Amino acid sequence: MRTSGILAAVIAAGCATTTSPDPGLEGVALTQVAPGTVIPGTSLQLSGASFVDASWGTATLHLHGDSIDVRWPATFVDFGTMTVAIDPTMIAQTGVTDFHGTATVEIVSSIDSQTYATAALPVDLSFRQTLAPAPSTVETGGVQFVNDAIEVDGDGFLLGGGEGVTVARVTGCFALDASAGGDGTCAPVASQDLPMTPSAALTRTQATFPLAPAIVGIQPGTFTGQVQVVNRQAGDAEVAAAAMPVSYTVVTSQIFQVSPGAASLGQFVFVDGGGFVGGTDGSGAVTEIELVGSFAKTGGDPVQVDMTLIPEYVDGRRVRYVLNTDDALGKSLDLTTDTGSFTGTITPIVSYGAQTVTGVASPAAFQIAPVKQVVYLDFQTSYTEELRDFGLRAVDAQVRAQIVATCQAAYRGVNLEFRTDPVTDFALFSDVELVGVDPNNMGLFGYDNSPGKDVGNARLYDELGGVNAATQQDGFPGYGGIFVRSFMAFSQHPLFGDSDPGADATFDAVFDPLREDRGGTAVTSEDLVGGLPVVDGSACPAADGDRGTAVACGVYVMGNLIGDTLAHEVGHSLGLANPYGDGFHDVGDAPNRLMDAGGQRPFKERATLGGQGPGVFCDDEYAYLKAILPSASGDGGVMRPACSTP
């Protein structure tokens, strides 16, 4: 958990000067404005491309047409999304109820003070101060499980948030099946207001409400009653539509599928079926999973299994269970080393209030897989914008791809996976933030701020990013992650601060043609027409006048610098270097050892230039990684230096 960057002078805040076009805005586009009906409290969503946050440009939505010509401030969400918060005065400002015209996003760049506008998008919008629900149909009849989503079609449904909520007001009675002790009596059910959820984002024409246990309980039977759709608009009296008759036949909970077929420590196992209950409403609703069968540990004899697990409630059709070391399954195995397969039956047991019902048993088979480390690369907005200083803002996607390729190469043959999309299938995974500026104000390239040396990688869930109070208390930097601006220290004429002792003229030969502060030309979309050439270290720096290779070399070198640092910091989080000894770096200095201290890893080695690099794990470190994260695949015959001092 120690630094891998060369300490540089404190970097001052600021940004590079530039000329038009602003590479972050030249591709700005608007593709959708939704929802189509707008009321006070609506968060109008603008979808498109090349949006920037407030520090890089001031954005407005311009509506023009009919008798409307208005501009409203827009707020950055991500590079493809902005929102406009609508209040009653804005509705009144339009002066119309139905608008036919165009929408344009206009952004005044903080870089060149120029206004960048999207192409005009034809739009039809309706403006209303209040909205009445207009349901046309409510799903009725058929066999349902408790907590099934009941569909309501129509119009005028609220989207939540500042608008308010639409609820389904359900009244009626429930007759318990004879199989559950019922005598045919339809017992009255207290009226329930159940929140409705849009079936798709930003739609007012279709929503669902759950067939909640407060209405039908958890035993089999028949519900007969009415559903009335009610709008509770913020600041207004509720508006109710006419009630519509419904009836549902409710059956006992059941499991249809368990996925994936093989899972490892920290991974979610998704159980799909029907009739699941849960939540935090104080009702005591809980779903348990009973496993009965045999488990065959790899290399061992099958043993009988009879255990109950408590999964996390997702909705009436899904629960999820994370393989962990704290419950009956985790305590019966060593999930860090044991693998094997289960064959038997799986049964849901649901409880609500004073009732507990055992559902239908289903056959099941799944495997316990070797432990796997998932690493989420969390690219922050500041990371993307910091690429401007290197002239690479327009090739963010290409730099990211090179970063991932560099990291994957370092861990080839190890059961570790780098991802750039949010992780939804693992509960335990590492998160590495990539940001613009080192918040420790130390000029670090990267820093693992996880607490303590995790020998054996027992945690799986380290966060290399944000602030860690524990590391601050022990006197070390508190903020972790990868800090892009700090790589400017390799320049002999850095844009910020002073040159580092490890500054290299080759860095400037690569980036000066792209740095506008050095008279170069930042990459624009024009450079990408026809694609970039494929380069390796032998082609960089590019020859004078070879623009395509110069851009490709910038991508290659920046991706390698960041990827090498990232792989090093992840190595720290896994317990390296010297996993069973003292210290956090290799002893001494040897070429191409990834876990050498920062001062022993020069620019060309990190960038894989001039016959140096790439950095690799030395022999004992790689053996350790293979032991804690076993994989059947090899490393492709990488020649590894010795971990001992040469």
Give a description of the structure.
There is one protein chain. With 646 residues, the protein is an alpha+beta fold. Helices cover 14% and strands 35% of the residues. The protein is built from ten helices and 37 strands. The strands form seven sheets. Strands 31, 32, 33, 34, 35, 36 and 37 form a seven-stranded mixed sheet that branches. Strands 2, 4, 5, 8, 9 and 10 form a six-stranded mixed sheet that branches. Helix 5 packs across helix 8. The longest helix is centred in the C-terminal third of the chain and has 27 residues, at 547-573. It is flat and about 85 Å long. The chain starts with 28 loop residues before the first strand and ends in an 18-residue tail after the last helix. Mean pLDDT is 92; it is low at 1-19 and 469-475.
Distance N to C terminus = 24 Å
Please tell me what the overall shape is. Answer: flat
What does the average pLDDT come to? 92
Amount of helix: 10-25%
Condensed summary:
The protein has 646 residues and is an alpha+beta fold. The longest helix has 27 residues, at 547-573. The radius of gyration is 30 Å and the shape is flat.
List the helices and strands and how they pair.
Elements: E1 29-34, E2 37-38, E3 43-49, E4 57-65, E5 68-73, E6 75-78, E7 81-85, H1 88-94, E8 98-109, E9 115-117, E10 121-127, E11 134-138, E12 143-145, E13 149-155, E14 164-176, E15 186-195, E16 197-198, E17 206-210, H2 213-216, E18 221-233, E19 239-240, E20 244-251, E21 254-259, E22 262-263, E23 268-274, E24 286-297, E25 302-309, E26 312-315, E27 318-322, H3 328-332, E28 340-352, E29 355-358, E30 362-368, E31 373-379, H4 381-386, H5 396-410, E32 416-419, E33 430-435, E34 446-447, E35 463-464, E36 466-467, H6 469-473, E37 479-483, H7 505-511, H8 547-573, H9 603-607, H10 619-628
Parallel strand pairs: 2-10, 12-20, 22-30, 31-32, 31-33, 33-35, 33-37
Antiparallel strand pairs: 1-3, 3-7, 4-5, 4-8, 6-7, 8-9, 8-10, 11-13, 13-17, 14-15, 14-18, 16-17, 18-19, 18-20, 21-23, 23-27, 24-25, 24-28, 26-27, 28-29, 28-30, 34-37, 36-37
